[in-house]
Amino acid sequence: MSGCPGSRTMTFATQEGADVPAGKVPSQLRQWPIQMHLVSPAAPYFQGADVVLAADCVPFAMGDFHNAYLKGRALGIACPKLDGNQEIYLEKIRGLFEDAKINTLTVVIMQVPCCRGLVGLALQALKESSRKVPVKSVVVSLQGEVLQEEWAAA
Amino acid sequence: MERYLRTPIKEIIGKHPAVGAVLEEYRIGCVPCSVGTCLLADIVEIHDLSPEDEGTLMARIAAVVAPGQVAALPEPRTRRPEATRKYSYSPPMKALVEEHGRIKRFLAVLPSVIDRFDARSEADRGLVRGGLDFVRSYADRFHHAKEEDILFSLFDPDLDILKAMREDHERGRAFARAAGEALARGDGEGIAANLRGYAGVLSEHIRKEDEILYPWMDRNLSMRQVGELFARFRAVDERFEEDRKKYESFVGRLEDANAETLSEVSR
After folding, report:
1. Alpha-carbon distance B234 to B241, whole Å?
2. Which end of chain B is more exposed for a tag (fewer CB within 10 A), N or C?
């Protein structure tokens, strides 16, 4: 149990008795694309929207991500540890604030330290933006529990 | 117990004064409230106690209102794990709390302004005129208008807690009006009494909003509402930009003048 917590090997026991919704659960995704290198702040789905910027691993860790965070919101996904050219992300997030005039941004990350970079990126973009919006950060455990929700200060 | 949960708190405290003391222990200040129509069940929800505290509080109230009886207590509400409950104001609420900070700074200086007031001095009358202008323009037209016209409109207008807050605003306005009338007729005692009344109402009102109302509102606002509220507050800020700066610097000047006078007195 040593080394980087972001890539440490772990196995989780099945949660006995965990509630599983009956039948097919509909997706709450209302757009394509979603990856931050592929999306454009000019896309109609971002205009005036409440946006979620999620770390790539979050929707897999969190069983109810669609209903808890995606419903009614536009989405961008990224990995602050592995993705290249993240200065483009900075520009795009600033474009969301200034050009798409988004209403709010919720940054959902995993608890591993390398994920903090995504919140840092969003706050840097907010600091550089001439237009301010409320930004909230949400930290999710490896097994999908919300560990912390906090309003970010730019 | 179910019947008491649906009973206005003033009625319960009226019949059982010890309930007021129990609530005070949990920093639930219903005793001095001028309205008191909130239902016990709503009060418990608004204050967001831990399940343990909520259970103990209800048991203690049951022991007062129905001594010796086995009361069926409601199940404490479940809530999110403690780690997620670390509360921080949403950006629009934080802006209101910062405005409260400026009003509290004004209220802190007010007693020494009142103590030293001489109705024959034009400088003292000018200071009170400036203070009343701050009260009417910054605290009321700018800050309370944000609350009454924008924030409160997102909630049911019949909520007792909002009625109580509006009534506090009205009581503050009445004291400010009466202080202005006393100033016009050179009545030093009238000025002092009404400014003290204003400071008393506003200090308690701000505490209730910062500690209870705003956190409760934050728990009930959606992300969409928080974003819209933030944008609407910013628009008001921009409209009042010049005035806002003027009144913020007025508080600073008042503090500086007060500090100089106090140091002269202590010399």
Report:
1. 10
2. C
